[in-house]
Amino acid sequence: MKSRNSLTEKVETILASLPAERRHLVLFLHRVQQELGYIPGEALRMAADYFAVSPAEVYGLVTFYSAFRLKPGCRHEITVCQGTACHVRGAPELAAELSRLLGVRPGQENPEKGVSLRTVNCLGCCALAPVVVVDGEYKGRVQKEQVPKILEKLTVKT
Ligand code: FES
Q1: pLDDT (tens digit, 9 = 90+) per residue, 112-122?
Q2: Residue 98 and residue 21: Cα distance in Å, rounded?
Q3: What's the pTM?
Q4: Among the atoms of ligand 1, which is closest to the Cα of residue 128?
């Protein structure tokens, strides 16, 4: 019961921290995931209440966008966009380099290194292609040569 209350408080704090003019469902869910590493069921229920939509609609949204996760995962999560714009600007090479350095294939986790690697089909910011998301932070126009430095900042051993 205590952890549920604490989780509720965290989610309420996240909601309150959003500027009123930017309070919308997707941004809220994005912030929850950024802060907690995933979107707990409690946050889905609270989002439905606050934004006056059905829990099924919130759930549908979260499961539609593969960038959202409903379960806690690794300490660090790296997502490489493989949509068309990113693909033609070098995303496959980025994914291959991340895969090589982390010792995981896209869609896998390396619990020893505390990192997971995923790919998605467009993050909605194609002008920044190729895009990599590291722990919720979007990085645009990423070059393969930058990958070791990105991992270094995460203190992920390669
Ligand atoms: S294709 Fe990568 S952000 Fe759209």
Answers
A1: 888 889 999 99
A2: 37
A3: 0.62
A4: 3
